[in-house]
Amino acid sequence: MGESLLFRPGRIGSLDLNHRILMGAMHLGIEGQRDSLPQLKAFYEERVRGGAAMIISGNVAVLPEGGGHGMFCLTEADHLAQLTELIKAVHNAGGKMALQLTHWGRYAKSSETGRTPWAPSPIASRLTKETPAEMTLADIAKLKKAFAAGATFAASAGFDAIEIMGSEGYLLNQFVSPLTNKRTDGYGQSLDGRMRLCLEIVEEIRKQAGNDPPIIYRISGDDFMEGSTTREETLEFARRLEQSGVDALNVGIGWHESSLPTVGAIVPPGAFAHIAASIRAAVSIPVIGANRIHTPETAEQLLARGDIDFVAPARPWLADPAFAQKIIESDRDGLNLCLSCNQACLDHTLGHPPKPVSCLVNPRAGKEAVTIPPADKPLAIAVVGGGVAGLQAAKTAAERGHHVTLFEADNRLGGQFRLASHIPGKDIFRETIRYFRVSLERLGVTIRLNTSPSMQELNPFDRVIMATGVQPYIPETLEGVDLPHVCTYADILSGTRPLGRQIVIVGGGGIGSDVAHYIVEKMKLQPHVQTFFAERGYGSEHHETVTITLVSRSEKVAKGVGPTSRWVLLAELKRSGVQIVKGYRCTAITSEGVWVENDSEKRFLKADQVVLCTGQRSRTEMAEFMKEQLHADLIGGASDASELNAARAIRQAYELAAGV
């Protein structure tokens, strides 16, 4: 990759950058807490060492009512002091950092700020269920001064650039959008009025802070809200921002309220690049792209096409703190890719209550300040089970200097994670298995596939870690579970059972919902086939009818799936015509179908195939015996099969092996 466009030096205003891979803004949920400052420094220092050309900080509120839980606010003296310490730490590590200036507007919660949220107009937010106060002209003047003061502080503290957050439905974006700006004064009505505050803020910053630091404006490329800012208006706004003195545009996508997924794994890589490209064609300043640019291949393609000038992914830096360095060193095999699962990042920050950010595939994320020392004495360690828990345990133990042997009963690594990789949007799970396999090979771990070790084989080891995982739970007391047309989710996802045409899925949790999604996609004509016929003037309809019914005991389908992913999954099932029967328990399976009932009625659902998604059970036979006989440690599904939770399993494995 020596000729890669990603490696070419770049320039934003007066700032020279070594290459084109930035680290986008992430709210970590620990900002502003003095006792968390060492961790915050360690987090960013590690990403500097990982090659980020420049890091953009998480949201920093310019005023108290525009912030939220675990955020810096520029009206707090200690927060200013912490930010000054933070930029010094980044500079000492050899890095560059931009300070992102933010006001959440109607997305701020009074329960977190203790203040009534502001907005251009008093229009309730679906996100917070609150109605904000309409900003007065005095409020607007105060906001402009606060942004300018923030830029002045950033310059004096030594930040290398500032980014103004004007995207994702936050306050400045709310002023530009006709959906949230119904003002009848000079800050509303026409596009000129709706743009006015944003342009005045840039001009005020230039007046107060001069030409340094460079200004990046995070512009909403498309709100994906019906009736919001048009594409033509956005392009005009981009041109006006350039004229007002902005040095680069960072293109954001969608609002938190929009119905189009923008950050989930179901979104194709680089899906929004055409939007950034249209903005790049309208201006002469650099354009930065972020959403769904998670791999070096996608980033390279977008630069080669001329869609953008820089890439600024965020979550991929959680997954691998050396994201840029590995790309620069052509170590694609060693890159730990982000899964866009949101389970330990966005689901944490948007949780009730919010939790600090971590990462499913990188349990060190958020714990960089805690050093894991080499082992005092290298031990011979056996890890039994090659799912993600076993893989993480083996990796961490080997990194500490232990001699590790990994046993896996199957002929491939990955376990349940490999099964899950067949679900739409989760094929990237195979990249995690690839990363673990490469890591273990480099660490010299002995991998023995197709092997279930005996007691005698494990006896010589100093330590045994049982990560034998789970298997589908079959409720043996349920009448009809042994009929030939009944199978488990594992049978379906592994491809060992052909699909029926009238399918009932028993179990409406995360697994059942995923299996329904899998079957829907499996039955569709693939997009490339549709395109082939469409380009040649032929129809390509799939005439075969398949019905899928999902039976959920709970009234809440896909319970346990994270909040940022659940609504996307349910929307896909609805769009695909999956029938959902909520609040019913399965009482019997017959050769013709399934009997279900609730407290008031009994129903019969015809089926030629019944798929059991009724939970999991630990592979306890061997694990419990080894625990007693060899004092083995049980991790992952072997210790708790209550639900499939890869994030928990990987974290548990990491913490155990870090202490061995």
From TrEMBL:
Its cofactor is FMN; [4Fe-4S] cluster. Residues 381-626 form the FAD/NAD(P)-binding domain. Keywords: Flavoprotein, FMN, Iron, Iron-sulfur, Metal-binding, Oxidoreductase. One of its GO terms (molecular function) is oxidoreductase activity. Residues 6-328 form the NADH:flavin oxidoreductase/NADH oxidase N-terminal domain. InterPro entries: Aldolase_TIM, FAD/NAD-bd_sf, FAD/NAD-binding_dom, NADH:flavin_oxidoreductase, OxRdtase_FMN_N. SUPFAM superfamilies: FAD/NAD(P)-binding domain, FMN-linked oxidoreductases. It holds the Pfam family Pyr_redox_2. In the N-terminal section; belongs to the NADH:flavin oxidoreductase/NADH oxidase family. This is NADH:flavin oxidoreductase. The lineage of its organism: Bacteria, Bacillati, Bacillota, Bacilli, Bacillales.
